[in-house]
Every structure is written in C-alpha cells, then in structure tokens.
Design goal:
Blueprint lengths: L1 H88 L22 H6 L7 H5 L1
Length: 130
C-alpha cells in the first residue's frame, strides 16, 4: 500500500510539474501574443495616420486643381459671352447658328452641344469676306 501511495504521490507531483510547465508556457505565449497585438496595433495606427495625411493632401491637390479649372472655365465663358455680345451688337455679324439673345451669366453652365454648334471665331471667314 505504501508503494501505491508513493506511486500516486509521484504521479501527482509529475502532473503538477507538467501543469506548472504548461501554465508557464501559456503565460509566455500570452505575453508574446499581447506584444504582437500591441506592435500590430501601433503599426495599424501609424498606417491610419499616414493614410489620413495622404487623403488630406489629395483633397488639397484636388481642390487646387478644381479651382484652377474653374478659373479657366470662367475665362472661357467670359470670352464666349463677349463674342456673342459683339455679334449681337453688330447686325452684319449675326448668323443662323449663334444665339440671338444675350448669353447667360458666366456661372450658368452651357450644354457642350450648344458651344460646339457656335462658330469657332468671332467672325467667320464668310463674314470676313463680306
């Protein structure tokens, strides 16, 4: 019976030792996992910040490009309106394709088809030869 008790005690100690080793290993693995999580979280936060900076820069670039294009568009509309008004002020410059009424303000869009149908120059070659 002493032998059985000694064997049982030895088996219990062995199991306790294995349990302790498993707990220690799990603790190390948990610490490593937490370190990896923190490192990954830090890298992710850095990427998010970098992406936000890039988005802000792209928005600024887009806004600047749009402002430049808007200024060009306004200049084209002003020139178009000046050409139309000049044609309207001189009856000999009127033709069948140009608008017969004053143009809208420069902030009012004009359909591309209308612009394409208008003469390329303020005076057409036929008008110039008259």
């Amino acid at each position: 019976m002493v032998e059985a008790s000694d064997a049982a005690g030895k088996s219990v100690r062995e199991l306790e030792s294995r349990l302790s080793a498993a707990v220690s290993e799990a603790s190390h693995e948990r610490a490593a996992a937490e370190k990896l999580i923190n490192t990954t979280r830090g890298a992710l936060n850095a990427m998010v910040e970098e992406n936000q900076k890039q988005v802000e820069q792209l928005r600024a670039d887009h806004d600047q490009a749009r402002a430049t294009m808007e200024a060009e568009l306004v200049a084209h509309r002003e020139m178009r309106n000046a050409r139309i008004n000049e044609r309207l002020s001189h009856p000999e410059l009127r033709d069948g394709t140009s608008p017969q009424t004053p143009p809208p303000d420069t902030d009012v869009p004009v359909a591309p088809e209308i612009v394409r149908s208008e003469p390329l120059y303020s005076v057409t070659l036929d008008e110039l030869n008259m």
